Amino acid sequence: MRQPDGSSIVLTTKLQSMLAWVRKNSLWPLPFGTACCAIEFMSSVSAHYDLARFGAEVVRFSPRQSDMMIVAGTITDKMAPVVRRVYDQMAEPKYVISMGACACTGGFYRAYHVVQGVDEFIPVDVYVPGCPPTPEALIHGILELQKMIQRGETHYDRLSQKGAGNAESASI
Amino acid sequence: MQNPLPSKLQSLLLSSEVCPDGHVEMKVERSHLLEVLKGLRDDPACSCNLLADICGVDYPDREQRFEAVYHLGNLDSGQRYRVRVGLAEDDAVLPSAYSLWPAADWFEREAWDMMGIQFEGHPNMKRILTHEAFQGHPLRKDYDASQRCLMTEDDLMVPDWAKEDQASADDFETQILNIGPSHPATHGTLRTVVRLDGEVIDRAECEIGYLHRCFEKMSETHGWNQVIPYTDRLNYCSSMINGVGFALTVEKMLGIEAPPRAQAIRVILSEFSRLMDHAVCLGANLVDLGALTNFWYFFQPREEIYGLLESCAGGRLTVSYARVGGLSHDVPPDFEERCRRLLKEIPPFLDDVDKLVTTNRIFRDRTEGVGKMTAEEAIAWGWTGPCLRASGVPYDVRKAAPYMGYENYDFDVPIATTGDTYARYLVRMEEMRQSLRIIEQALDQMPEGPIITGDHHVALPPKARVYSEMESLIWHFKLVFDGIHVPKGSAYGFTEGANGELGYYVVSDGGGQPYRVKVRPPCFAIFQAFPHLIEGHMVPDLIAIMGSLNIIAGELDR
Amino acid sequence: MMKDVPTVNVDRPPSSLLERIYLGPIFSGLGVTLRHFLRNLFGKKDIATIEYPEVKRQYSERLRGRHILTTRDNGKLRCVACYMCETACPAHCIHIVAEENPGEEVAHEKVPRIYEIDLLRCVYCGYCVDACPEEAIIMSRTHEMAFSDRDEAVIGIEELRQKGPIEEADIGYRPYF
């Protein structure tokens, strides 16, 4: 519930921060893995790094069941409409991590069939550099995303702060 | 060396010669092409059973602008053949070789897509790597490397027969099902459209190219050594093997050889990479079949191998360790100790998986007799590597055309006879153990010495001398700014990648950058047989078969 | 030729009765997982999981992470703006603008006015380090980075400059002699 001047009352602030706490600790990833980065994503869910410790182990390939899309690998012009469609199918709140040089900027493929950064067509919350990033770097990125969710700085939060049409704030 | 071509064939050729690397090269007119190819296949003196690759090259200055290069091989004798045919720009049409080898299917489509060479009589002449809205042919020299064509619709690429089927909805028995590209069992980027008759697949078609990241065009815009990081990302599960394969091909053109120590290190790390590749393949295949535990067991030794690669090269997955003429730097002092520890640590994990899976009845029931391939068919489709060996053909490049001293190591080639998914699993399991054998021998025999050639036209001088001596500094400058100059000509270098014969056909115009690099990815030939392989099976079998073929998209689509 | 190759046949006989009734393999499989379970439960020493971020594994001395521009004893950059790294970079992620050395030293005529690396473009291949004739650019082992904006990732001289003595920097990949 938001006051007309834009400030929130104390109770909803607490509720919102609790909601953020809940959200950040159960980020179910949708790994949109296409290339080398997907292999490192596999490493980070396997025994050595165990993403389960951060509540993000429930890897879901169904967009309806996931909160966080990890774009891992090169996205080509042929693949771009698919990424966009999968992103559109995800239920809100949704977050995007762009993993690795190719997904972030196209990397060293300045080429005729490679998208120069997935932010051309989907909003990205966290960019993780590396080619491919080590599992530690990916986990670091996920921890950063958790902090951003707690602080309310993600694209989703910015959109919902703009006001109307936001289901979550209406229900609170 | 004697020209082994029969005289009947020779009369059809414009010219023929035996190249320094033993390949027989011939030039032929377009009108005689099919006759020559048929002769090469059927004549007992040649009997080429493998069509390894078809490559288009663009020479804008020549009267006949395009050249198509066919790479053929006889698996029994090991002899290789290369057929070149020139084509004018306004009439770039060739007869299709699909009727001779089904392997020509995708190779010809690729030549059309990338270079704009038409093939008459091909059953499905469509773009393969780029999308339908793409304009132009990107590997032509006048195509700008960064010129993109956007695609906004994602449902364009449906086969014609599937569209027709959907339109005539009066037949309720059949159903069109689209699997991929974003599907957990298709490893991210593969897409198959199947028609189901009840639960059985009666027609299928694959759509690839979702990871086409223009490796070949990028190679043409970068220096010879700068291509190595790109090769790492071809088959990213075993990146070391790709870089070594490319370096070997360029070394062949330069007429140099890496020092013995570099070769031994390359062998050790290549075999570890092969092991990792098989581990990922089997781990992922078993996950797709519902056996998740094996995935964790396989990934533990993998992490250890990553640690080893990181200690040598600085990168875990994409190592960028090979250089033309050797390696970028020497291995750390504890290398041997670490390798020996790994040799001890890895077999127990393999045994664990063995106990969990190999005799398990559910696994056997799901994989035995599924996705069967006979030896003749497999060769005709251009299969190589573990998948071919599972059909009973003991073809391994490490034995057939040894490189890097593989002839000095004692190892066996695992074969199976049934050619099904289970056989492919068994062959990969045994190959991992054989790789460990090779590594052990290579460690025992590892020589001391330099790790890169001393030729300053090829290798950067040692850093200590660059800092202190003027001459070395000048060489360093020259090599960084100007690059290696590879003599004019072309070569086909092939090595045993984790999935089969990994070939590089490299053309040089004498400049600091490759003129044309064509990769012959083993997956490409294997995956084109996939629709044929799954017909008559059910959808869950499709998943099992796809996993067992180990299709790595980076290599498939480049 | 192919016939002389030493081969090992890996075909397996049809399942035995014990295997067909499923019980043998399932118990041996359960044995394997139980052994792993017990070892993880009681043998604390060889648990595979690393408690990142509190605990970190031992990284290689050659790990290729974020770049460092090294400095001389007087605190000035070693870089002489020769453009070798920019040329060697396959990703073209390094951008250098040179200027005349404003100081009184004459030994090094040029210095970089702008030296920028796009950390998101960079593929961390180490070619810039190999190409540098002055050991002016080396790599650290800092590989955990995350940005919320693409512009943040383009870092300049101040961020890249070596902080404090080189021994204290977390050095990764550097030229080997």
Concise synopsis of the structure shown:
The complex is a heterotrimer of chains A (172), B (558) and C (177). Chain A has 172 residues and is an alpha/beta fold.
Strand order of the largest sheet of chain C: 3-4-6
User: What coarse outline of chain A follows from CA principal-axis ratios?
Assistant: globular
**Quaternary class:** heterotrimer
Total number of domains of chain C:
2
* Pattern of helices and strands of chain C: EHHEHEEHEEH
Distance between the ends of chain C: 44 Å
* Overall form of chain C: elongated
Summarize model confidence as the mean pLDDT of chain C.
83
Radius of gyration of chain C: 27 Å
Counting H and I runs of at least 4 residues, what is the number of helices of chain A? 7
CATH class of the largest domain in chain C: Alpha Beta
Order of helix and strand elements from N to C terminus of chain A:
HEHEHEHEHHH
Structural class of chain C: alpha+beta
Task: Kindly report the greatest chain-chain contact and the residue count on each side.
Answer: B-C, 67 and 52 residues
* Helicity of chain A, as a percent range: 40-55%
CATH topology of the largest domain in chain C: Alpha-Beta Plaits
